[in-house]
Amino acid sequence: MFSIVIPLYNKEKYISRTIESALAQTFQDFEVIVVNDGSTDKSVERVQLFDDTRIRLINQSNSGVSAARNMGIKNAKYELIAFLDADDLWDKDFLSTAYELYNEYQDCDIYALNYRIANSVDSFHSPIIRGLPDSFEDGIIQNYFIIASVSDPIIWSSSVIITKNALNFIGGFPTGIRAGEDLLTWAKLAAQFDIVYTRKQKATFNRIGETANSTPRIPDVHNRVGEELLALDLTAKADKVEGLHSYIAFWHKIRLANFIRLEDKDSAKIELQLMSRFSKKDLKYFIYAFLVYSPKTILKPLTTFVLYINKFRRKFISKKEA
Question: What is the model's pTM?
């Protein structure tokens, strides 16, 4: 019924627990496809310790997470593809909840479940999702780009079920992109297909070890994600692109924040201009502008302070809304 695709690269510390959370599902009609993307640690040995005929291990040279997911999709036996990153976890009723959504909304192609974010072994917070009615529990999302541009990811790679047909239609996950490949994939899907979402939290996103001082991903020099998001204006279904420009501005804000943390002020200035091109100059714009044009001597401590304040604020809001 479900093909579970787990991309694996150097996760020996986590992969056993991740696979165990998949095998422990109350809904047992599934296969598990682990795609080893050239791991150099003992990840593969951990997988091979499992004695379950439903687990298939595919090895490939290191090609990136998108290529690993695409390999899993290609080898999947079933139409419903569930993705699970190698350090994340599912609740025991994750698949049964997804199956209920599938039965209720069989004309849809994307089924997104809510999740929790683990900051430490015993510290969790909920993602901040804005734009849904207070009474919303589950159903079809009508304004994905509006919601996604002001929220934490409403679709997340370890808490989503997607039909093989929809994934093949958009060409799978984009390869050759260092950061933003998931974001672009969800956007391409949202531009063509209906998305079902439930507020039920059924998965855990592992962010243990990340801090405000963690080094951000280095943005791609060639902003392919931004280019392809803009191109959706021409290829998307007309009723699905409301809020797309706000979402493009949101993407440039992500790049802008990373360039600021990397102290690459020239690139940050470009992203600031692009962000303002697609959205109004609100308070966040002026905060970023202040950071971009601050002297380098105070940029790093000032940025760290802003990151800590923002992290505290997000935790407070998520706990309040939970």
Answer: 0.90
